[in-house]
User: Fold these one by one.
Assistant:
Number 1:
Amino acid sequence: MKKQATPSEDSAVQSTGLSSVSLSLPSSYDENIIGKAALSLEDEAVSVSWVKTKYGWDIQWVFTSPAPIKALAKLISKHSGDPFKESNFVVEDIPETNWLEASYLQFPPFEIKDFFIFGSHFDGKPPKGKIPLQIDAATAFGSGEHGTTRGCLEALLHLHSTGLKPKAILDMGAGSGILGIAAYKLWKKPVLAVDIDKEATRVACHHRKINHVPSGDKGMVCATGDGYAARRVKAKDKGFDLIIANILAGPLVLMAEDLSKNLAKDGITILSGLLVEQEKEVLKAHKSAGLSVVKRITHGEWRTLILSK
């Protein structure tokens, strides 16, 4: 049962000790403001997500109960410049269930330019002319809503529009596998999706299957490994024509030399997971490794970079 800014009083329902907090805002709000507002209590939240639909912005937090609604209202008011009260938030105790799925179901399918992204609960047909990407509700590894993933998908579409024809693609830090799957659907060329997390590899493999992407050397291979030291990466003597790395600024800096070594001559890389303010540090490391900037894509405070060798 949903209600305004008070924890559930239904003691008959076994709770997880978590609360879901939702806030809907008009589409007129700037994305940068939405991002700052959503992340205002990031350190205290179990998870944060936001998405823009045709009806406006939907922001959702998951907190350990009780949710800090008063503090949240104060911070949202500060970032938006508009007054918000505790009654503006919808709070729901999360029962013992697949709460990731329950959370995901609150968001409708959405589009990122030519891509149509939807969950397993969607029973309609993707719009004609759109590239479908199904991301199962039960995963916590990224669905395309975040500015970093969105930036990468837009970067892939941009590169495809320029006539880029990669023969081998690497999705480093693959997570859900959404970027590797998107790359395969654009070029129909081999993709290696690598993640250090075994669960992420399992999820990426699951998504490969439900998106009807073939496995093996001519399709998409999902592998667990430690970055560029992964066995399958090291086995690629000629390197990769396209490397996608949507991780964090720190690892991007540390892996810059290894990325360059594994990038084929005239190869292209997409870097994301960095804040605008972290670009200088990330670029310095990659310029030192022989790469140069081709394009920048910005979503709120998040930056995606396209670099060439």
Number 2:
Amino acid sequence: MQQGQTSGAAARLRSRVRLPLSRLFFAVLLAAALALLVLPPPEGVPPVALRTGALALVSVGLWSTGLIAAWLASALFFFAAMVLGLAPAQIVFSGFHSTAIWLVFGGMIIGMAVHRSGLGARTVRYALSFFHGGYLQLAAALVVVGLLLAFIVPSAMGRMLLLMPMVFALAEQLGFDADSDGRAGMVLAATLGTTLPAFAILPANVPNMALIGAAESIYGVHFQYGGYMLLNFPVMGTLSLAAIPALVTLFFGEEARPAAAAAGHERWSRDEKVLVAIVLATVAMWTLDFAHGLSPAWVALGAAILCLMPGIGVLPATAIREADFGPWIFVAGVIGLGAVANHTGLADAIGRHLLEIVEFEGASGPFAFAAMAAIGMAVALVTCLPAAPAIMTPLAAAIAAKSGWALDSVLMAQVPTWIVFPLPYQAPPLLVALSLGAIAIPRVLPLMASYFAFGVVVILPLQYLWGHFLGVYG
């Protein structure tokens, strides 16, 4: 009880300290948004792009500060985008017919089934029998599990949604309250562990596949699994894998107090057996996507339907009323913002403007790499990571011509800009995990800022040296 009271008091203190800073940060972004509405557009930039930029600043500010609920900020984005006439409805609401949003829906239902069937509790009891270390070992174990899933489940969102019910149940059994640092750190370890290193595995994340698809359709350039992993995993994958447990323990580490293990072995219920079959079939379908061609989203949707199907599933049809659709609306807003920024020319204008002011000609290899990374990061701040390849890939030919790098080298230089990012809203799986775990975004900003600094100072320079050694980077 004393530990719970201490954690609650600490959480309230953090909230009181961060609220004025959040308001100040949002006020700065709001002032910048108003300036965009008043100032005349630069030459070649359509006025609608500036209005989109103003809305983007307000939306990102609300998502990042947590001044209002994330789903409400997304609803505000939908309303403002339509009232201002920034884009047609099919663009503004494109998030609702994206595969990512239905992957979230399927994962929500599967997560409910795992919890209500008792399978989550059984899995946690099994995991606790192996837990004998401190918080660093716990965080490292969650990161490794997340990474291993990346080799068989081709979607960070799907992996995160599979992991979260287990993480929540495990945190409870380890004595971490709902608002404790220990539970928040476990959520971050599992989510970042299954997201960041996976950018170095070709089919594991959405931006990876978006880059491959765009490179093939625009330039006819094809990348191989082994070559992609050889370039990106030894440095970026390994260092991000090592950094996550250390940073999570530094910012969120707490002493675990495991609950006493239940004696004996409970028999498997009918619902548990059915759910195991559904989950195994789902993972198998995700793993074999190269053979059947079905999107992971439709596989997840099918699994959700089976969980709810009368006579087959493990949930009553009325369970849909208990689902929290806040994360669903939240993700749709983030995806919609990227689509509107792309449609209005905002993202393209930012990328091309940066391309004009950066002097590539005669630049050394390290400078050219740093400039490409800076441009990619700026675009990703506006569009979020899944949409960034759609903007950066068409610019690759111009960057290659200016820098003297080979086209495929410029294309591959996008990848480091995904694995090093400062704000949670840029990565939808992280956003949804925070929403499901009821973790305020400002609470994780110190960790993300520290990781971003580590990435810029350590990961990116070492990645350039490795790529140069392989003959990929100039």
